[in-house]
Each structure stands twice: as C-alpha cells, then as structure tokens.
Amino acid sequence: MRQLDVHNAFLNGHLSDTVFMKQPPGYEDPAHPDHVCHLQRSLYGLKQAPQAWFKRLHEFLITTGFLASKTDVSLFHYTDGDSRVFLLVYVDDIIMFGNDSALIDSLLQRLSSTFKIRDLGKPTFFLGIETLSEGGSFLLSQRRYMADVLSRAGMTDCKPLATPAAVTQPATPTLDLFDNPTQYRRIVGALQYLTITRPDLSFSVNRLCQFMHSPTQDHWGLLKRVLRYVKGTLDYGLRLSPSSSSAIHAFSDSDWAGCTIDRKSTSGYAVFLGSNLISWLSRKQRTVARSSSEAEYKGLADVAAEVTWVVSLLWELGLHTGQPATLWCDNLGATYLAANPVFHATTKHVEIDFHFVRDKVSSGKFVVNFVSTKDQLADIFTKPLPAPRFHTLRDKLNVDNIHPCA
C-alpha cells in the first residue's frame, strides 16, 4: 500500500469552458491594460477546477492502462496477468495498493512523469484516519480527530461513560431552546465524520442530526453524553483482518415506531464481507409503518440496495465468488414476505419499490434467513441498549481498541 499526494492538483486541469479573468495585479500588460486573460488551465477558486483536475487524471490513467470503475467513479484498477493494482482517489490524495510491488513502482513512475507526485510511503494518516498495523490486521482509528472534537466542545477533561445513549428517556422533556445552536450543529456535524470508523456511534449521531434545526437543552445533554462516551473510547477503531471467507452476509433490523415524536421507525443494517464489516447505516424511515413486519421489510429493502451495490463492485473487480448474499432478519413476517409473492391484507399498501427484495430472492441472488433477536447485530443501529448488550454487539462489529504494543 502506498499513499500519494499530488502537488497543486487543481493547476493540472485543462478547462473546456470559456473563462476570462482580469489581469493579476503586478502582471498587467502596459500596452493593453484593459485586456483580460483567457484561461486555458484551471486555477484554485474556480468552480470548474475539481472537475477539470479529475478529468485530466482520469484521461491519463485510462491511457496508462487503468480501467475506471463504473460502480465507484473514484476507483481505478489495473490488471497484468496475476498482478492487480487498485488506485483510489479523493481530490489530490491517492492510495495505491496491489499484490505486485514492482508493478506499483512502475505505475508510480509513470504518474510522476506527468504530475508532481509525492510518495508518502505506507499509509499512516489519510483524510484524518490513521491506519495502524497490528500483526496481519489493520485498525482504522480517528483518535486525533476525536481529541480535536472534544477540545472544540470544551470537554477534554469530562468523565467518560460506558454507552453513547441512555436507555431511559426523561419523564418530562424540556422545550427550552439551546442558547448556542451553531455550536450544536458544528459538533454534531463533526461527529458525523467520526462514524466512518465508529459504527457504534451511528444510532446516537443519527438521532442528534434530527434536531439540527432547533436543538433544545435536552438535545445538548444527549450530545454531551455521546462526547463522554467518545472520551472513554479514544483508542477504539474499526479492525480489518484477513478472512478465510469472502461471502457477503448482512444483518437488518428496525425499531417499530421508535420515535416518540412522529412514530416513524428507525432502520439499521450491517454488511460483512467475510468477517469484516464494510458498510453500515442507521436511519429513520421516510414513512410511518403500520406493523413491525412492514418496518422490518422496509429495512430489508435498504440493505438489499446496499448489498446490490457491493456485489456489483466485487463483480466488476473480479472478486465475487458467485455465491448468493445472505440477509439476516429477526422478523418472521418480513422473512416470509420476501419469499412469498402473495400480497397479504397488511402489506397491500406497501410501496412497490420495496418489493424488489422479492425479485432478488426469486432470482437466487439473495437468501433471506431468520435470526434470533439475541444474535441480531444490527440491533445496535436502531435503539439505545444497556451497557452489556451494547458492548457485546460493538465487539461483534469489529470495533476494537488499540493494543498497548501499537
């Protein structure tokens, strides 16, 4: 794995639009002071600059032999016999990895001949995420980012808590508005980025985001509880380990009418590739569900869409085994509904777009199985949980702490 940085990336883009600019101060043409510059290359500050840079990079990589992924536009892959190289782009930050170090060096040399590339070596700090190697596994950590969020909130020395959300709700919620809503929005927005490596925070952060428009003192209290949990788990991150299996299996769960304000349900899912968690979500459903089966079925539709995307990406990269993905649901009604083409009286009103789960099951691409509530890993994305249950599920999601040797 190699981390690359492109120096002055936006200046490499060629403009396809007609853009004029005033002569820069100190460089005016004395013979034609009223003339303007016709830009051929992009500059920082132009709205076309990011697109122009990516187009230039895309064209160069294609001529070099890379293939652009149709599933993820920021991913490119290169194949030479048994050698595979993948290149992932985020603006001017690039990660290149593969199974042939000589081929990587050769491709890096071609990149350096056209762009001013800085080779940062093995990735250690990429987009605020640390990559810590421990044996044969990686731990993706944002401990520096977490410390910065706590500092901005003035809670560096706060007392830690075991869970990010309380199981009990206040008997009489206050309607007093929080006196600094901008600070609330700023910190909650920062916590959203933290969920990239901390799936255990997804439910709590999603709930906080629902009150951005008008936070109250109670919402500020909920936010401080999440920060106190973050304080006690600064050394935690998402672990990725070698897996003997490359099968896809996903857990889907819903908390029926869990929101006391509008009675909408909260859905959550966790998608695993082998033993590694690769995708997760906690989100309130758009419509009110009339039954728990309907709420769970809507959750199945969400995870089915995500798994379809994951399968498409793996097929494109030649990494899919061809085995059907397994979806686990703890509601028998939703499980039967996914396999039974008969519309029951309680499901006639369900929107048609949710029924594409049936098409996937009937075509053999998905298998929907029942799992007991005790073994439902997505339970952590739908509701507050007691500390023992929360810690058990957190461990099963591969959220681990940094070992002392690291």
Can you tell me about this structure?
- This protein folds into three domains: 2-123, Alpha-Beta Plaits (2-Layer Sandwich), CATH 3.30.70; 140-232, no CATH class; 245-371, Nucleotidyltransferase, domain 5 (2-Layer Sandwich).
- The strands form four sheets. A six-stranded antiparallel sheet has the order 4-5-6-7-1-8, covered by helices on one side.
- The protein is α+β, with helices and mostly antiparallel strands and 406 residues long.
- It has helices at residues 49-64, 101-114, 143-152, 181-194, 202-209, 217-232, 292-316, 332-339, 356-362, 387-396, and strands at residues 2-6, 20-22, 36-38, 67-68, 75-80, 83-90, 93-98, 117-119, 125-126, 129-134, 137-141, 236-240, 248-255, 266-273, 276-284, 325-329, 366-370, 399-401.
- It is globular and about 75 Å long.
- The two termini are 19 Å apart.
Layout of strands and helices, then pairs:
Layout: E1 2-6, E2 20-22, E3 36-38, H1 49-64, E4 67-68, E5 75-80, E6 83-90, E7 93-98, H2 101-114, E8 117-119, E9 125-126, E10 129-134, E11 137-141, H3 143-152, H4 181-194, H5 202-209, H6 217-232, E12 236-240, E13 248-255, E14 266-273, E15 276-284, H7 292-316, E16 325-329, H8 332-339, H9 356-362, E17 366-370, H10 387-396, E18 399-401
Helix pairs in contact: 3-4, 4-5, 7-8
Features:
five-stranded antiparallel sheet, single chain, 10 helices, Alpha-Beta Plaits, six-stranded antiparallel sheet, 18 strands, 3 domains, 23% strand, alpha+beta, Nucleotidyltransferase, domain 5, 406 residues
